[in-house]
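User: Structure please.
Assistant: Input sequence and predicted structure:
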Amino acid sequence: MDSAIIKPFGRKAHGFIIRRPEHDRRYTILVGSVRSSKTFALDAKTIVQLSNYDRIPSNAKRFMVGATKQTLYRNVLLDLFAIAGKDNYSYNGSSGELWLFGKQWFCMGAKDEASYKQILGATVGLAVCDEVVEYPKSYMAQLFMRMSPEFARMYGSTNPGNPYCYLKTDVIDAFKPDQLEVINFTLADNPNITLSAKESIIASQSGVFKLRYIDGLWVVAEGSIYRDSWDDKANTYTNATRPITLVNRGGHVDHWFAVDCGVDHPQVYGEFYDDGTTIYLERVWRWDSRVEMRQLTDSQYADKLEEFMGGMPGLEVRVPPECASFRAELAGRGHWIIDADNEVVPGIHTVSTVLSKRILKINKDQCCGMAKRLPNYAWDDKAAKRGVEQPLKVNDDDADMVRYGIHGKVNEWRWL
């Protein structure tokens, strides 16, 4: 075991970790800000207490759950493996089967409505759940029903979300105190983050994301999405103020394109440059079939993209996976196609962060009014009151293209 991995825990995390599972409530959820040690405390609890927990019957299954199996691996398993040491675990990424200190666990994602089928028929003894707010109600309802053994335990961690979300209304606010314990964490509960790092984390968040991910509040996302992160001067540039060598060879470290496909709304292309410090949205191309009174075919759109790209071969083109026919057209022409990450709220969070930290700048001369449309991108207030978070599907094409171009492309270290 690498001793450098083990660092002091705050009092709140320490108390949770050392308490035996039989003394915990049936359900325990760690809620609070980012970097507050929730997930690491859950890792330590798994190693110290849950690995040898024997109060559940031998036929009861142990589950580790994330929004997706990939995020579970990144957020939980990597640290868990580092703590446990390579001789104490065996993990099959394809099947999700994990052996940890001689105990069998099943790892899975629970992002969509069909996820509950993965646990049908199972008797659940232990469940360790990351990003619980991302799970559909159907999965959590099935999980709770499957926890039939007397000493079954579920442990979850989450950032706060929409207060109308079922996790808040039907679980946190509805379960009796003798069933459910909610432990609230803040940045102050993590003794391993320096003051300057905390200040940087706080500065990276704005608007609803600051209220949730820093202040730990369950608040509705409403109004202008990028209102608090956008600055018309700090987030824009012009042809005259563009770094002199940016678009030349050696003036940037990365160069790529992003696409938002349109059928009954505009098709939008964007060209991005990254100089290692700042990401520049240099140009945007739009085709609005309602204005032009003509819908283009996939082949014609591909022609337009190649014209927009200026015949530059081998550059990454980020296209959302749902644009299957256009992707096939581009792939058939030999373009390098990357699946854009199309998760809406996480993508909005990433764009909000890079705007707040002034990592993303937009060329006002060549981006077709983008600097006006992006700040007017708004949440759907009516959907939010149903517990559903989504932007209004009005003038959202530019914002969607930026989200596809940035989310999953820009690493978190850029703003921490």
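Residues 236-414 form a domain with the Nucleotidyltransferase; domain 5 fold (CATH 3.30.420.280).
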